[in-house]
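Subject: for your reference before the review

Hello V.,

The reviewers asked for a structural picture of the protein, and I figured it would be easier to keep everything in one thread rather than splitting it across files. Below is the amino acid sequence we used in the manuscript, unchanged from the supplementary table.
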Amino acid sequence: MRVISLFSGIGGLDKGFVDAGFKIVWANDFDKYAVQTYNANFDVPSTLADITTYPIEEIPEFDVLIGGFPCQPFSMMGQQKGFEDTRGTLFFRIAEIIAYQIDVRKHKPRAIILENVRALRTHDNGHTLARIKEILKEDLGYNVFDMNLNSSDYGVPQTRNRTYIVCFANDEVKEFDPPEKEKLTYYMQDVLEEDVPDKYFLSEKIRKTVLSSGSGGWVAKAETDLPIARPLCATMAKMHRASQDNYVTQDKGLRRLTPRECARLQGFDGPKSSDFVIPVSDSQAYKQFGNAVTVNVSRAVAKAVKTKLQEVGEWND
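And here is what came back from the structure prediction:
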């Protein structure tokens, strides 16, 4: 089943779908460092390009489209401008790519899987998600399902709630339930590396900042050594947010997570493995893993989509 991946980042969605038996035929991102990491880990390279200007006709024919389209316009950490933000209009570019294949190539993609932040479900009192679903259903002709999935429910010790929108072209698909949950068999302490370099340990000044209870309108409880990690964020490298990121205690004191530990908490590696190649600086790696889709969740969704396609006779190898 041929898949194209938009806004592929370092391939969290892609890896889950590959693991489930799908074939990535084209991927894209505009961040050169994300593309560097992606290309160090996948057989089919990601294309470095701005999808808003990339010629649609050069995107290969596909059966499935996946994409974690930019979440900043809908994120609770941003100003929640939604479609008023230029990045919010990238959903319409997705719709254009699908429509081109339907209208010009006369081949309707079998499934569409999109990922975004949980706040998408409530943004603008639900009108933003309703508009997205309307375009997918009324304009493009898909049966559309949406759900909130938490990474900690799929075998990874990280609290990370995300909205998934799953669409099927076949009218026989009348329902699509969230994937069956997976038991959590290890915790954040189980992913920690040993003999971590000094640079990851906190100075007293930074320690006071990150363990404070916040300021202004944001107040939070300082917690460290959590068994289930807080959501990994793209700004982890800055260590400027009070009581928001993850810190653990080892022999030299309190420290931040290493990029490898972030890879494990996002499912790119197992709790003790180091197979995923990280070819970029720590700052870029933190950004990439903070923006990534959790592989375990992607894999669960991909398996459920595959099962549904098989049930209605739409699956092909």
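For the response letter, the relevant points are probably these. The two ends are 5 Å apart (CA to CA). The chain has two domains: 2-184+293-311, 188-291.

Happy to draft the paragraph if you're swamped.

O.
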